[in-house]
Write a structure and sequence with these properties.
The complex is a heterodimer of chains A (about 90) and B (about 140).
Chain A lengths: L1 H10 L36 H38 L2
Chain B lengths: L1 H5 L2 H17 L7 H80 L18 H11 L4
Helix pairs in contact in B: 2-3
Classes of the chains: A mainly alpha (about 90), B mainly alpha (about 140).
Chain lengths: ~90, ~140
């Protein structure tokens, strides 16, 4: 019993070196969480201009999706760097 | 340390002072010999506890300082993270707008220039767009499941 008392008294001086303050990894902006839109299709009897418009529309969708993907990469790299700087 | 939450810091320093006084008192000649040893033992215990707690107080202060430092670091990083979010979203919105405007310009061009060839490439026209051509484009646009 005495030993337990002495040990518990001694152990009160022990402390962990890890500070209990942590940074949470940030939430991604909602715009980055939007999925890419499906590509548009052409009618069977489409005119040449409609084909060109549809192809253009699909390229626009690709560019938007590509930009979003690049933004994700940039977001992750930068947030990771910030997150790891807090240690 | 839980003891430090319960009792003020001065209490532990006071214990040390009481212990030192206790030791000093045992050297006064008129104190009966029978009390000397117990008082000395008690005083040494008090001094030990006081020294131990002085160490704990110092450690606690160091700990609190580190917590504050860490909190400041986290706050700074969170602000930086928020700034990065805003920067990336702004950039993305700008790029989306650029792509949209460029797309509109191309569509205008199609409506102005490509439309001239619509009749030539119309079904039954001089150069009808083959169904296979349309199919190949639609197949490529088909979402992969």
């Amino acid at each position: 019993m005495r030993l337990i008392l002495i040990l518990s008294l001694l152990l009160t001086g022990c402390a962990t070196k890890t500070v209990p303050v942590k940074m949470k990894f940030p939430e991604a902006p909602s715009i980055l969480l939007e999925s890419c839109v499906d590509l548009g299709k052409i009618k069977e009897d489409a005119k040449l201009s409609e084909v060109a418009t549809s192809v253009t529309g699909n390229y626009i969708l690709y560019h938007n999706c590509s930009d979003k993907n690049n933004a994700w990469i940039e977001w992750y790299k930068e947030q990771k760097q910030i997150f790891e700087s807090v240690k | 340390m839980w003891l430090l939450d319960w009792l003020p810091e001065w209490f532990f320093y006071a214990l040390g002072v009481v212990g030192l006084v206790g030791i000093f008192v045992t050297y006064i000649p008129f104190i009966p010999k029978i009390y000397k040893i117990p008082v000395q033992i008690f005083s040494v215990v008090l001094i030990s506890a006081s020294v131990y707690m002085a160490g704990a107080i110092s450690k606690e202060q160091e700990w609190q300082l580190r917590v504050k430092e860490m909190e400041a670091k986290v706050a700074k990083a969170e602000a930086e993270s928020q700034k990065t979010n805003t920067k990336i979203v702004t950039k993305l919105v700008k790029r989306t707008e650029i792509v949209r405007v460029k797309g509109q310009e191309i569509v205008k061009y199609i409506d102005r220039e490509v439309v001239k060839y619509d009749n030539k490439f119309a079904p039954g026209g001089e150069c009808e767009i083959p169904k296979e051509f349309v199919k190949s484009i639609n197949d490529a646009a088909e979402p992969i499941k």
